[in-house]
Amino acid sequence: MFDLSISEIAIIVIITIVVIGPKELPRALATAGRWMAKARGVMGNFRTGFDAMVREAELQEMEKKWAAENERIMLESPTVSDDEPVMQPLDGPPVADETDATDQPNLPLGEDTPEKPPEKPPEKPSA
């Protein structure tokens, strides 16, 4: 990223140790690490937002293309003429007469008979 050679990194480390001192160096490195983490987080959020904007722009462009293609297809396809059969909706389910409902006995909805508990086999006498 910065294209530093080993000799340049060594000079930076020596100057840092002299300026900050060996006692404060761990605290300074921890602070620098926190700053780098925050910077990476901000860059990640920026990149995510930018990618979302690009995807949204691409989707809008594709929707325009699809709308134009759909319009072209609709203009090219023939319309329904008067001599072609047209689909009609089906009639609803038949309605039961009230006289039919009185002819049947009143049965509970669901099961016709209550379930009996299973019979246990007789026990064998122990010898």
What's this model, at a glance?
This protein has helices spanning 6-20, 25-76, 98-103. It is mostly helical and 127 residues long.
What order do the helices and strands come in, and which of them pair?
Layout: H1 6-20, H2 25-76, H3 98-103
Membrane topology: Single-pass membrane protein
Transmembrane segments: 6-25
Biased composition (Basic and acidic residues): 113-127
Structural notes for this entry:
The protein is mainly α and about 130 residues long. It has a domain at about 5-75. The protein is built from three helices and no strands. About 0% of the residues are buried. The mean pLDDT is about 80.
Provide tags for this entry:
127 residues, mainly alpha, TatA/B/E, protein transport, Sec-independent protein translocase protein TatB, membrane
